TrEMBL record:
This is Thioredoxin fold domain-containing protein. InterPro entries: Thioredoxin-like_fold (IPR012336), Thioredoxin-like_sf (IPR036249), Thioredoxin_CS (IPR017937), Thioredoxin_domain (IPR013766), Thioredoxin_H-type-like (IPR050620). Residues 1-17 form the signal peptide. It comes from Sphingobacterium suaedae. The keyword Glycoprotein does not apply.
Length: 412
């Protein structure tokens, strides 16, 4: 079913479910919410979301309405949903929060969605959570916000107070990376590298940590990986990742993806690769450029070229294209392309995603591709398999698709 990160679909929820779930404030202001929190001695939970964000929709439709989630958040927080984008369909209530949303984005560095900000009863930011999750795990993350010793802001204060403590620097960097606080993460990583020294950094744990922190070619983490490529390859726990993968990905993000985002036409990928490898002769950009091509042709809706780029990527990286990526590529073709050659290629990618893990979402993708290719009999068999292995939350969607297949109706 769908790209894995778009398991996160928005399903309208019933009023009854909302009564059991989190109660969000309506027709209020930030000042009134702070006053209510202070009067009730509760923290403030702010869901910073956008209308286009899949994980945001998943949290709203599936997690927030759950009774146990509502019980925890309603008892401990005054809750607010804050829409961070603006659309033509926005209600007057949403519009009344436009300026406040802009202030939150700037003042609290909201750069990814969903971001959940938690304030103490005095209205001071004490914790942040980035990204959704299942109910129990999400409650556990929010629980940390209620105790000073586990609050994000407490960790930041410790980092500021102890400039020579390497472990605090490392702990701060990890927390900052998880919270998409890249500025603090860079500062903490730089301090940690300086305090520990290059030789001591070369452990499996540290390399895993530095790989996550290497977001810029000018960062200390990038420099350590660049200068110790052979040792990094030995220490990386995943056989599907190398120092070159990390370095080339950073360079692609800096030098290639902006051109795709700006919709530059007729990109000369060959010349671009040659230029990057000339300026950075320690890196092979082949796989990173090929992956960038898949994004470029996806954005251009050039599905035959997208198909060729994905096939080249699979050939270039051999077995190192993840099942999640293969499923995502295959679903993109299913949703957007009727060309038989594209559908056959997508079927092969989908089959490959199922080799080691018959995830129900991947089974759903394969069944849909079979169905769109005209193989109704086998499509129904694979969709029944997807339905049988699906979680309770997924079964309704899969059953709906199965019924459409049996009736001969389009599933796309």
């Amino acid at each position: 079913m769908r790209k894995l990160f778009v398991i996160l679909l928005c399903i309208p929820f019933l009023a009854l479910a909302q009564e059991k779930g989190i109660h969000f404030e309506h027709h209020s202001t930030w000042e009134k919410i702070k006053a209510k929190a202070k009067a009730e001695n509760k923290h403030i939970f702010v869901d910073c979301f956008t209308t286009w964000c899949g994980p945001c929709k998943y949290m709203s439709s599936t997690i927030f309405p759950q009774e146990k989630v509502g019980n925890f958040f309603n008892a401990n927080f005054v809750n607010l949903k804050l829409q961070m984008d603006e659309t033509k369909d926005d209600s007057d209530e949403v519009k009344s929060w436009y300026e406040e949303a802009k202030r939150f984005a700037t003042e609290y560095a909201v750069r990814a969605y969903p971001t959940f900000l938690i304030f103490n009863p005095d209205g001071e930011l004490v914790h942040r959570i980035v990204g959704g999750g299942e109910a129990d795990a999400f409650i556990a993350k929010a629980q940390q916000a209620l105790h000073p010793e586990t609050q994000y802001v407490t960790l930041v204060k410790q980092f500021e107070k102890h400039p020579t403590d390497a472990e605090i620097a490392k702990k701060t960097a990890k927390a900052a990376l998880a919270s998409y606080d890249q500025e603090l993460a860079n500062e903490a990583i730089n301090r940690y590298v300086e305090l520990v020294g290059s030789d001591a950094l070369l452990t499996a744990e540290n390399i895993q940590f530095l790989v996550k922190g290497a977001k810029s070619s000018k960062s200390s983490a990038y420099a350590v990986i660049k200068n110790n490529r052979t040792k990094v390859d030995e220490l990386l726990s995943s056989k599907n990742s190398t120092a070159n993968d990390v370095l080339s990905s950073v360079l692609a993000n800096e030098l290639v993806l902006p051109k795709i985002r700006h919709k530059e036409k007729q990109l000369d990928f060959k010349s671009l690769q040659q230029q990057i490898e000339h300026d950075h002769p320690y890196v092979d950009m082949t796989a990173a450029i090929t992956y960038a091509k898949t994004q470029y042709y996806f954005a251009e809706k050039n599905w035959p070229a997208f198909k060729d780029a994905v096939n080249t990527l699979i050939a270039t990286k051999n077995k190192n294209v993840s099942p999640i990526s293969l499923n995502s590529f295959a679903w993109s073709i299913f949703e957007n392309c009727d060309d038989p050659a594209c559908l056959q290629a997508a079927l092969s990618w989908s089959q490959k995603s199922l080799q080691d893990n018959e995830n129900p979402a991947f089974l759903d993708t394969y069944a849909n591709l079979l169905y769109k290719s005209g193989d109704k009999e086998n499509a129904i068999k694979w969709q029944e398999k997807a339905l049988a292995t699906a979680t309770e939350d997924e079964k309704e969607n899969y059953a709906t698709t199965l019924n459409k297949m049996k009736k001969g109706e389009p599933t796309w």
